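Quick question: who can interpret this fold?

. . .
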Amino acid sequence: MSVVPAEVLPGGARAAQETTAPGAAELGPPARLWPSLVAVYRAQLSRARVARIPLLFVATFQSVGITVMMRGVVDSGPEAQSVVAGSSVLVVAYVALNLLSQYFGQLRASGGLDHYATLPVPPAAVVLGAAAAYASFTVPGTLVTAVFGCALFGLPLTNLWILVAVIPLAGAALAGLGAACGLLAPRPELATLLGQLGMSAALLLGVLPADRMPQIIRLARDLLPSTYGVEAYARTFGADPDWAVVLVDLGVCAGVGVASLAVATWAYRRAAVR
């Protein structure tokens, strides 16, 4: 038997090593926010589709019932405008504050955040995707409540299109708060409690006319993000709405929405690494 040196072979041993042991593969580019957001949104929308009909029924029935109840107290005028606008935005508050805080609270307690932490998606995409999916279910209920309330109180439907801006902006502000409550609460029961308290605040401070509230309650009302969505919608019922003030109210909702979603993203990072 003869042994052939490796140096006499074509390329030698060095060529064989280069062929069998290539350098470390480069990592792929990080996932972009928008495609990740769309993927999380679709997944959450598909997951919550089973509970869509009960969710829509409960949120809409609650808001319509409050509108009917307030009809026995309020006749017309600015107070009726506040009731209809507040009842419509209440559908958004029910989902964004109550249900979203429960969802993230249970997700943290059950270890579901570990699943999202292993996915190559930015933390902001998880929070925004879940918030957008839950907020999508509020659109039919908000429209039904608004149309029913306008018919009940004799208000015009001319500027109903303003809900196209009110729903996502108020929903973003409230969804960020709801997600933050669920992610920061140490126990899911506490997350549920915080969500229900927030929804109760949106009910009492948003639906009841501000003129009948004490001054200290009005100050608390100004701190609630959904108040500005209610005010923006209520101002459009007039014969000549002040659109500059409406845009200011919507701008406040947008600013609070960015801040609250940023806090929720930070809370997600904090909860995911524990």
